[in-house]
Every structure is written in structure tokens, then in C-alpha cells.
């Protein structure tokens, strides 16, 4: 492969993590281009979530390298990785239930991240305008003053996506963003993702094949911590190995 | 659009501060004789700790069972200064080494230890009252929070620190006064703190400092940092992966709580006239958490009422039934946890405030019933 290609936004090489001898991710390599929407699929326990955990620093890798814009992420602290431009959505919606939608978005606004900065942070016109803009994108403009606890499951998923969008990351990683959504919500989310992908790269983990076909530039199929197949949706869907371990049932 | 949480004071907050100010600055001094007022002044020194706990525990979910350490450190700093002032060569002429504190002389010390020297200066002492607890909190905070120690483990470790400090103080009699503590304190820069007049002045100084701390606490809670603490309590990972260094916020709030506790400890020493290891250890540390829980761990004003009421009950009860107090305290804690998880402040917000606002037809109360649900 053309590993020196400077056009890659993210280069994952030989990534391995071992939990007490069990290799959840095993010598994994893949490359993500700018403005690409990469979808990772694979059976339960394949290591999909773990890959995202490794990239964003939540889990420490045993071996390998993760380069984002030529910076080694594995040596950085979680918050530094975020500031480098990598955003991460969790599999279960993680929003601040005791705070309003507005406050949830405000805490994610990329300013005042030090102790002093947080003490002196002012809710100025720019902040308000940006929050309003994001709220419109994620279909929550009428719920800004609602406590996040009272949102529906799908709305919480959107809110968390919005919390990432407001940081304008160059790489956005979404773990099962449509899980638990109604058909109508799924449609809206697909539309939302298509808009998001326009000016950034996205890695999405998803089980819903219809949804995957809708958004993916390329698909990586993960199985037992390794790449089973990679390529366009069409190619992957017709790969006999993939049909055997994943799509067949 | 009106967003109450961003304003430093809502109408409700102003009312709450005003009522508390009237009680502390006017009602209590008018209603109580000088002995009782001094007692309430002592209770209020615990309120400093309780307010700090509201920030750490209520807002940030960091339960410290070792706040007595910081209260004690502040108190000891003040006691060291007062003791040095009381130990003039003239006052201590009968000692084998005049001019050093009496307990040092009894323990065969012949010179003042070097680390006591700076406490000859009131200016140094006043800084130390805040700085020493903060530095301790900083060391504990960095060691624990950088390693991501939290929850029950953190609580137990802080408790261990309370035990260790008590043992150290008791063991190092010659340097610390041992189990008796530092007693027989007399004057502050020549001003006799034992007189009724002095005690009254100290009561007001104490109350003023408490309000200063309350204002700082209010500012912190209403800042973005306050909302971050709530967010961290519920979804620490989400905060971390939104680009915040979570540990630094925990360290900050823990140090702030320690600073408040240190001031409270120093004011205790001044008003009560001694400092001893019984105020530092595990039991007082847990009692301080109970003051906070009874008042309502989410409410800084509630914490003040909690400290006042529980201590007042303690004094009244242990005057008549000393053996019942510990039982009562335990029962109270269980009741608060099981029935009123948000303490007095919760009872007020849920039952009294809506009725009050109904009475006055105002919009102050109802909309602001408890903003935060308790964290686990
Ligand atoms: N911290 C950990 N300690 C031990 N084992 C772990 C840890 N995290 C994940 N695993 C294991 O690693 C494997 C991969 O888990 P992972 O959550 O990445 O799967 P996944 O592909 O996201 O599955 P799903 O589709 O169910 O979300 C699983 O067998 C899991 O039990
Ligand atoms: Mg997963």
C-alpha cells in the first residue's frame, strides 16, 4: 500500500490491543482519506468499538500506530486528541441529563477548556448564534431549554452528534448513531450524516445495511479484530468471506 | 430567551442570600447572649466546610471523607501563631526554656522547631491558613485524580489521610501539643480574644468571611465550570472526550473546598480558643459530610443551615442525653439518605417554595424546583 501517501487524514497501522491475552484488535491497518465516510461493520464482539476507543485514547494500545495528520495519537491524552481534531460519539447516547440542550451544546463549544477559561467563559453572541445553528442542524432548535433527560432516545443521539459538530472536528467517529431509532428518525439521521460528511471525514460503525449503503464511501468489515474485507459497499457485499461470517445470517 | 442558570443571581438566589444574611447578621446576634452567640459562631465555622463539600460532592460528585484534615490544618496554622504570641519569655519564665510554647518545654524541647518560626508573623499565618490546606489538597488531588481514582476509593483514601494526620499530631507531642492540642491561646496582635466583646467581633468577622466564601461558591456554580462539574458527575467520559482535562477540574474544586475548610478551621481556633486532633480525624470529617447532607448537598445555602441545625441539635442533645447523640446522628444520616436525598434544601424546593410562590402569585419559585437530580 502507499503508506507514505500524504493525502490520508488518518493512518492506522498494526494496531493491536490485548486484554489479558485476548486480542480484541489484532494487527489492524486502515487508511481514511479527507472527506471520506468510512463505515465499519462486523459481527458483535468483532472489535469495532474497541478500534474507536484506541483511536480516541480511551483504551491504550498494546502495539501499533495511529497517525492523524502526521501526529501520533497514541502518545496523546484524550483531551489533546480532541483538540487535534478528532471527535467521538459513544455507542450509548452520552449527554448531560441534568443540563438543558443549550447547556449541553455550550459545554461542547470549543472555548474555555482550561479551569480559568471555564470560570471566565461568557455566553456571548457568537456562542449563542453557533449553538442555534447547530441546534437547527440536529433538529432540536425548539428544544433548547429542555432538559436533556426529557429527550427521546433518538433526540439524545442527535444531541450528542451536535455536541461533536459544534467542535467542528476534522474526523468524526460515530458508534452506531441510528441504533434504537425509528424509521423516520433514521431517515433524518442519514440526511444529517450526509450533510456532515461534506466537509470532514467520518468513521461510522453501523449494523443497518440499508443505512450503510446510503452513506458509505468505503466499508471495512471487521472480524475477530482483523480486517476481513475492505472496499466499496458493492464489493464487500459480494465478498464470499463476508457473506459467510456476517451477512449470511 | 431567559436562561436562569447563566445569571449570577436569580430572584430566588437573592432572596435566599438575604434571608440567611438577616438570620446570621441580625436575628442571631439580637436573640442570643454572648455565650450562645459564640457557640453559633463555632457552628458557622463548620459551614465553611459544608459549603466546600457542596461544591465537591454535590456538584462534582467527589465525596471527601477527610475534610477535617483541611479544617484542622487551617486551625492549627492559626493556633500556632496565637500560641507563639502567648508564649512570651515573660509568660513562660518558669519553664526550663522560656519563650517556647509550654508543651514543647514539657517534652524537653529546648528550641523552637524551624517550621514554627514563620508563624511569628500574622501575615504569613493568614496566608498559610489557606495555602497549607490547598497545597495538601493539591498533592492529594494530583495523586488521585491524575490516576483516575474516584468514587468510593477516593472517599476511603481521604478518610485514611484524616486518620494519618490525627496519628501524626498525637504522636508528635513535642511539636504539636499532642492529644491535648494547642490550648491556652490569649491574644491576637495584643487583642485579647477571650473577652465577650472580642468574641462578638469575631462572630461578625466569621460571618463576613462565610458570606465571602458563599459568594465565591455561587460564582463558581454559575460559571461554566459549575455546569461542567454537573456534567462530569453524570458523564465523565463525555466531558473528557469533549476536550476537557477532567482531572484538573476535580483538583481545582477539591482545592477550593480545602481553602474554605482552612478558613473555617482558623476561625474555629480564634472563636473557641484552642485546636486539637479531635477536630481533624475521621469522626469530625464524617460529621461534616452529614451537615452538608442534611442541609442539602446541592445547595450552598442549605449547607449553612445544615451546619447550624445539626450542631445546635448536637449541643442541646448532648447536654441532656450525651449517650444518645451518636445514635441520633446516625439515624439522621440514614433518614436524609433514604427519605430526603436533597436535604433541607430539597424539602424547601419541593414543598415550601411552590406554596410560597403560590401565596405571592410570583414566578420565582415553581419554575425552579430542584434543578439537579442527585447523582449516584
Ligand atoms: N476493556 C475490556 N476488557 C476486556 N475485554 C474487552 C474490553 N473491551 C472490549 N473487550 C472485548 O473485546 C471484544 C470486542 O468488543 P467491542 O466492544 O469492540 O465489539 P463491537 O464490535 O463493538 O461489538 P458490538 O457490535 O456488540 O458493539 C469483545 O469480545 C469484548 O468482550
Ligand atoms: Mg460496539
UniProtKB/TrEMBL annotation, chain A:
<dbReference type="GO" id="GO:0005886">
    <property type="term" value="C:plasma membrane"/>
</dbReference>
<feature type="domain" description="ABC transporter">
    <location>
        <begin position="10"/>
        <end position="249"/>
    </location>
</feature>
<dbReference type="GO" id="GO:0016887">
    <property type="term" value="F:ATP hydrolysis activity"/>
</dbReference>
<dbReference type="Pfam" id="PF00005">
    <property type="entry name" value="ABC_tran"/>
</dbReference>
<keyword id="KW-0547">Nucleotide-binding</keyword>
<dbReference type="GO" id="GO:0005524">
    <property type="term" value="F:ATP binding"/>
</dbReference>
<keyword id="KW-0067">ATP-binding</keyword>
<dbReference type="InterPro" id="IPR032823">
    <property type="entry name" value="BCA_ABC_TP_C"/>
</dbReference>
<dbReference type="Pfam" id="PF12399">
    <property type="entry name" value="BCA_ABC_TP_C"/>
</dbReference>
<dbReference type="InterPro" id="IPR003439">
    <property type="entry name" value="ABC_transporter-like_ATP-bd"/>
</dbReference>
<dbReference type="InterPro" id="IPR017781">
    <property type="entry name" value="ABC_transptr_urea_ATP-bd_UrtD"/>
</dbReference>
<protein>
    <submittedName>
        <fullName>Urea transport system ATP-binding protein</fullName>
    </submittedName>
</protein>
<dbReference type="InterPro" id="IPR003593">
    <property type="entry name" value="AAA+_ATPase"/>
</dbReference>
<dbReference type="InterPro" id="IPR051120">
    <property type="entry name" value="ABC_AA/LPS_Transport"/>
</dbReference>
<keyword id="KW-0813">Transport</keyword>
<dbReference type="InterPro" id="IPR027417">
    <property type="entry name" value="P-loop_NTPase"/>
</dbReference>
Automatic annotation (TrEMBL), chain B:
<protein>
    <submittedName>
        <fullName>Amino acid/amide ABC transporter membrane protein 2, HAAT family</fullName>
    </submittedName>
</protein>
<feature type="transmembrane region" description="Helical">
    <location>
        <begin position="241"/>
        <end position="268"/>
    </location>
</feature>
<feature type="transmembrane region" description="Helical">
    <location>
        <begin position="324"/>
        <end position="349"/>
    </location>
</feature>
<dbReference type="InterPro" id="IPR001851">
    <property type="entry name" value="ABC_transp_permease"/>
</dbReference>
<keyword id="KW-1003">Cell membrane</keyword>
<feature type="transmembrane region" description="Helical">
    <location>
        <begin position="288"/>
        <end position="312"/>
    </location>
</feature>
<dbReference type="InterPro" id="IPR017778">
    <property type="entry name" value="ABC_transptr_urea_perm_UrtC"/>
</dbReference>
<feature type="transmembrane region" description="Helical">
    <location>
        <begin position="201"/>
        <end position="220"/>
    </location>
</feature>
<dbReference type="GO" id="GO:0005886">
    <property type="term" value="C:plasma membrane"/>
</dbReference>
<feature type="transmembrane region" description="Helical">
    <location>
        <begin position="122"/>
        <end position="145"/>
    </location>
</feature>
<dbReference type="InterPro" id="IPR043428">
    <property type="entry name" value="LivM-like"/>
</dbReference>
<keyword id="KW-0812">Transmembrane</keyword>
<dbReference type="Pfam" id="PF02653">
    <property type="entry name" value="BPD_transp_2"/>
</dbReference>
<dbReference type="GO" id="GO:0015658">
    <property type="term" value="F:branched-chain amino acid transmembrane transporter activity"/>
</dbReference>
<keyword id="KW-0472">Membrane</keyword>
<feature type="transmembrane region" description="Helical">
    <location>
        <begin position="44"/>
        <end position="66"/>
    </location>
</feature>
<feature type="transmembrane region" description="Helical">
    <location>
        <begin position="152"/>
        <end position="171"/>
    </location>
</feature>
<feature type="transmembrane region" description="Helical">
    <location>
        <begin position="14"/>
        <end position="32"/>
    </location>
</feature>
<keyword id="KW-1133">Transmembrane helix</keyword>
